[in-house]
Design a protein that fits this description.
By secondary structure, this protein is mainly alpha-helical. The protein contains five helices and three strands; from the N terminus they run H-H-E-E-E-H-H-H. It has helices at residues 4-10, 16-34, 66-82, 86-110, 124-143; strands spanning 41-42, 57-58, 62-63. It has a three-stranded antiparallel sheet. Helix 3 (66-82) runs antiparallel to helix 4 (86-110) and helix 4 (86-110) runs antiparallel to helix 5 (124-143). The longest helix is centred in the middle third of the chain and has 25 residues, at 86-110. The chain is globular, with a radius of gyration of 17 Å. The two termini are 21 Å apart.
């Protein structure tokens, strides 16, 4: 027989860190799906597989492509899997935040440019969002407690 504490630590979302990773995972899945929905994504006819030529805009603001949407979906799936353990959730938040920090720096040089280097594609709205995501994920990865979220 297992104790309640051991069972709680092994369930998805039982620590604050796991809840954070789960939340980010779900949001990334929603964003990835939304990128393929006409009405939520403007100029769907101009969406390309990758590259700066994709003029599709999620919520009329964030430049997306098929690659961009698939990356969001994969990032969401990884978040859901990582949320199964507290250590996996923390790793997802910190490493994911670092990935978004690198993407932000990359975007400083490529966002909005008609250049093959802007293959994701990125615009300035994406870049601001990536900076926010980097800070939020890294901070939450270090600040959220890795012990049970249950109250006594």
């Amino acid at each position: 027989m297992t104790s309640n504490a051991a069972t709680a630590r092994n369930r998805t979302g039982s620590t604050w860190t796991q809840k954070g990773a789960l939340l980010f995972g779900v949001v990334f899945l929603i964003v990835g799906i939304a990128g393929f929905i006409p009405g939520l994504t403007m100029d769907m006819g101009s969406m390309s597989v990758a590259g700066h030529g994709s003029m599709a805009l999620l919520l009329g603001l964030f430049q997306v492509s098929i690659l961009h949407n698939v990356v969001h979906l994969l990032f969401g799936i990884v978040g859901l899997i990582a949320a199964r353990t507290a250590s996996g959730a923390r790793l997802y938040l910190v490493v994911g935040g670092i990935v978004y920090a690198v993407l932000f720096v990359y975007g400083l040089f490529t966002a909005g440019m008609a250049d093959p280097a802007n293959f994701v594609p990125l615009n300035s709205a994406d870049n601001v969002l990536h900076a926010f995501l980097a800070v939020a994920m890294i901070v939450l990865g270090f600040v959220l407690p890795r012990v049970g979220a249950r109250t006594r």
